[in-house]
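Supplementary Methods, section 5.1.

A reviewer requested that the exact input to the structure prediction be made available. We therefore reproduce it here, unchanged from the version used in the analyses.
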Amino acid sequence: MKILITGATGLLGRSLVKTALSKGIEINFLTTKKSKINCLNKAKGFYWNPSNGDLDTDCFLGVDIIIHLAGASISKLWTSSYKKLIFSSRIDSTRLLFSSLKQIGSRHKIKQIISASAVGIYPSDFEKIFSETAKVYPSTFMEEVVIAWENEVNSFDSINIKVAKMRIGLVLSNYGGVLGPLKIPTALGLGAAFGDGKQGQSWIHISDVVGIFLKACNEQWEGVYNLVAPNPVSQTDFIKALAKALKRPYFLPPIPKILLKILVGKMSSLVLDSHWISAQKVIGKKYKFLYPEINTAMINIIDDCLE
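The structure derived from this sequence is encoded token-by-token as follows.
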């Protein structure tokens, strides 16, 4: 099997490349920086620039599956210009992949595209549990971005390429992600939830994200899948689990919602929104989670950091 990965040098991409190569899967990857073409050992890099439509179509040679992870980080301050980048980085990159494949036609043998998506497509709700069949509407910035992204990915179906969309929750990793900005204050005994702390946190260990992506490749999954652990928790319990893994106390009251909104504006939705998301569809595919519980997942991540 040969896979082309976009976003291969990011948090998830690097873990995916490493695991895939260890299983004997060949990897091509696309990068927007020519200096990074040779940065991943045993993987072959190709240059692209989605903002101006440049792509080296040799990247498709011999490839069976595309895993599309490219997109600007949502954890930087949401200025007007950066919000445009969050949107365009996902839409432009997807359109360029599609138009390039359509242009070369029968000269490629790609059968499937698996695209990252996000649980931010679902509305914030403090009680309802959302499955993949829930209706979604673009009523917030994140919902607008993710819905538009998924709609672009759907276009691959028109050129007979199977489409799978992975709505990923909060990824736990020892290399950054959601835990990056939380570990420092929590390690100092200053960990705290946000708002009232009751908001749902649908999280997943990075090893399970990689495992599900590769299972989806091997079994040619189609459709929408929630990539979350089967046991979401409240934000208070999420921070408590991090503090416990760090062997630090947890005693501070939640940080008031109004203060967050003053400091970071609409970006505060990233920590104030509540998402209780179902993992039942992935479980139905007989995927066995390595880390189904928050406490064991946190301990594994923190222990890896300390090694």
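The CA atoms of residues 95 and 163 lie 14 Å apart. These observations are discussed further in the main text.
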